[in-house]
C-alpha cells in the first residue's frame, strides 16, 4: 500500500510545480501507479538504499534518484538502478 500512496502523493505534488522522485522496491506496483519519476532498485523490502552501513552504495542510489529530477516529463519515468554506476 505504501508504494501506491507515495506514487499518488507524488502526482499531486508534481501538479503544483514541484518535481519529485521516489525510490521503489516493487517495480510492478510502481508501473501500475505511474508516479512522475521513480528509480527501481532490486533490494529486499526495508532496504531501499542498500545494505546498512554501506555509505558508498547508499550514495550511488541517492545520486541516481536525484539525477532523474531535472528530466522533463511527458509521461511517467521509471528507471532501473544499475550497480555499474
What can be said about this structure in brief?
By secondary structure, the chain is α/β, with parallel strands linked by helices. The protein is built from 3 helices and 3 strands. It has one domain (2-80).
Task: Reconstruct the topology from this structure.
Blueprint: H1 2-15, E1 22-24, H2 27-33, E2 37-40, H3 55-66, E3 77-80
Parallel strand pairs: 1-2, 2-3
Mean pLDDT: 91
Total of domains:
1
Strand content: 5-15%
What's the oligomerization state?
Answer: single chain
Helix content: 25-40%
What is the ordering of alpha helices and beta strands? HEHEHE
Shape: globular
**Radius of gyration using CA atoms only:** 13 Å
In words, what does this structure look like?
The protein has 85 residues and is of the alpha/beta class. The protein has one domain (2-80). It is 39% helix and 13% strand. The protein has helices at residues 2-15, 27-33, 55-66; strands at 22-24, 37-40, 77-80. A three-stranded parallel β-sheet has the order 1-2-3, with helices on both faces. The longest helix is centred in the first third of the chain and has 14 residues, at 2-15.
List keywords for this structure.
alpha/beta, 85 residues, globular, 3 helices, 3 strands, 3-stranded parallel sheet
Amino acid at each position: 500500500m505504501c508504494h501506491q500512496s507515495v506514487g499518488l502523493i507524488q502526482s499531486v505534488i508534481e501538479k503544483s510545480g514541484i518535481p519529485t522522485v521516489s525510490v521503489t522496491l516493487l517495480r510492478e506496483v510502481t508501473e501500475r501507479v505511474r508516479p512522475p519519476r521513480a528509480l527501481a532498485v532490486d533490494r529486499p523490502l526495508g532496504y531501499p538504499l542498500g545494505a546498512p552501513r554501506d555509505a558508498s552504495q547508499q550514495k550511488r542510489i541517492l545520486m541516481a534518484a536525484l539525477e532523474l529530477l531535472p528530466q522533463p516529463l511527458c509521461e511517467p519515468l521509471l528507471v532501473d538502478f544499475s550497480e555499474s554506476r
